[in-house]
Write a sequence for this structure.
């Protein structure tokens, strides 16, 4: 997601609902104020899949400061959801599958006061048989069996219920730990079976006693064919140019980059970003993702996320000289020489305990990374509150990109302002949502913008 400030006010013109495959940002919503405006009711939906992903498309760029909340409710209770934002759409999916044959309401709240509501009823599952929707094979010999509903792990993870080319997995020594499950229990994974495949057509057998989470079994014993062609390419995978991207992963940081071949495993200890080793790694296809947890410390006791953000667009990704990460053929990857981040999506954040004010009327706002000195901020982007809720006057706002600070100078010729700084121990500060405070441009020519939470913060006067 490119986090780029868009001053065009968000207006919902089209509302297209469809399946999508994106999941990133966790959204928590314990309550949402109804500001009195009526909801725009969208056409209701029925027989909705238990893992339905809703995609909402906008006619202008959707940014986090234009969207107040996206929630799904069941019986007036909020359910946990995940939301992914792109330039012109957001995708919403439940963390856990919906309940069968149940009614839900999806609600969208915009900062311009508009509200949209869509009611939907999920499909009835009890008493119906699950079906296999597809079978996929990767070159590591892992089989992905995709069902049309969540399956029972206890039932599926029994090797005697599965066969490859007429031979039971239990006879192959296949154990419960060799199974995997993902996609909200809709995909069963049979790992590392390549040595049992034949070139060409292979047959997978599933016993009808494999049941879904509602206890419904397959209608009958199922046989499915898949093709296998061994890959003999032994050249080493290399990192693709201009693919190194830094973005938020909740409060954590994700360093993402692509290779020119499918990956088979990623060892996080092979890599560093800004000199910091990740806490764990994930991979999908040709993409590797290194995760740095928000509370993780390095050997010097420094917070890893803080170190990476302090280097900003100049953060470097590199690998050890002899990495052990492998492609899908089991061949180790090429060494990655230090490379600068290409797309930097880590929006600046305020470091509240480093902000302060002085008796002379200055307020220093500290950020966790360099900010663009050319950011077009204005004095009326900042709201200062003094004695008895009085609004204080800001006469100047200056950016120091070297110290990651914005310094506000208040008009001490104004008696209310002078009195507030003289008599108080702290000053209340709020930054307008329209304030255009930018990070430094990355190599792709874009910058990440500060997103104001639109709440007051207290700044201590020294």
């Amino acid at each position: 997601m490119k986090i780029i400030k868009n001053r065009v006010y968000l207006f919902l013109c089209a509302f297209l609902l469809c399946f999508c495959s994106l999941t990133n940002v966790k959204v928590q919503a314990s309550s949402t104020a109804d500001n009195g405006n009526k909801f725009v009711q969208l056409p209701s939906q029925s027989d909705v899949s238990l893992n339905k992903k809703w995609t909402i498309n906008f006619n202008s760029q959707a940014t986090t400061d234009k969207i107040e909340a996206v929630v799904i409710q069941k019986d007036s209770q909020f359910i946990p959801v995940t939301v992914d934002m792109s330039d012109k759409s957001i995708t919403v999916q439940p963390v856990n599958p919906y309940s069968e044959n149940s009614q839900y309401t999806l609600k969208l709240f915009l900062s311009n006061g508009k509200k949209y509501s869509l009611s939907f009823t999920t499909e009835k599952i009890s008493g119906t048989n699950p079906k296999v929707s597809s079978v996929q094979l990767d070159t590591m010999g892992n089989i992905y069996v995709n069902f049309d509903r969540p399956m029972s792990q206890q039932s599926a993870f029994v090797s005697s219920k599965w066969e490859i080319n007429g031979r039971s997995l239990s006879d192959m020594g296949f154990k419960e730990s060799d199974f995997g499950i993902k996609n909200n229990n809709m995909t069963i994974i049979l790992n590392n079976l390549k040595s049992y495949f034949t070139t060409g057509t292979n047959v997978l057998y599933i016993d009808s006693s494999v049941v879904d989470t509602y206890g419904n079994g397959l209608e009958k014993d199922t046989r499915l064919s898949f093709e296998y062609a061994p890959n003999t390419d032994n050249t080493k995978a290399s990192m693709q140019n201009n693919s190194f991207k830094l973005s938020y992963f909740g409060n954590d940081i994700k360093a993402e980059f692509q290779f020119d071949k499918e990956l088979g495993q990623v060892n996080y200890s092979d890599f560093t970003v800004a000199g910091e080793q990740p806490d764990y790694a994930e991979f999908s296809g040709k993409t590797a993702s290194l995760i740095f947890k928000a509370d993780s410390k390095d050997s010097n006791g420094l917070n890893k996320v803080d170190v990476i953000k302090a280097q900003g667009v100049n953060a470097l990704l590199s690998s050890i000289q002899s990495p052990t990460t492998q492609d899908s053929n089991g061949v180790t990857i090429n060494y990655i020489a230090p490379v600068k981040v290409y797309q930097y999506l880590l929006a600046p954040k305020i470091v509240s305990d480093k902000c302060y004010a002085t008796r002379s009327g200055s307020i220093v706002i500290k950020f966790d990374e360099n900010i663009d000195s050319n950011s077009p901020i204005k004095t009326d982007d900042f709201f200062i509150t003094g004695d008895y809720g009085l609004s204080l006057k800001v006469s100047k706002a200056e950016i120091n990109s070297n110290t990651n600070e914005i310094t506000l100078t208040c008009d001490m010729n104004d008696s209310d302002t002078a009195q507030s700084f003289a008599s108080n121990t702290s000053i209340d500060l709020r930054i307008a949502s329209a304030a255009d405070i930018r990070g430094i441009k990355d190599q792709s020519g874009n910058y990440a913008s500060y997103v104001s939470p639109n709440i007051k913060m207290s700044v201590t006067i020294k």
About this structure: Confidence is low (pLDDT under 50) at residues 1-35. The first strand starts at residue 25 and ends at 27. The chain is about 5% helix and 35% strand.
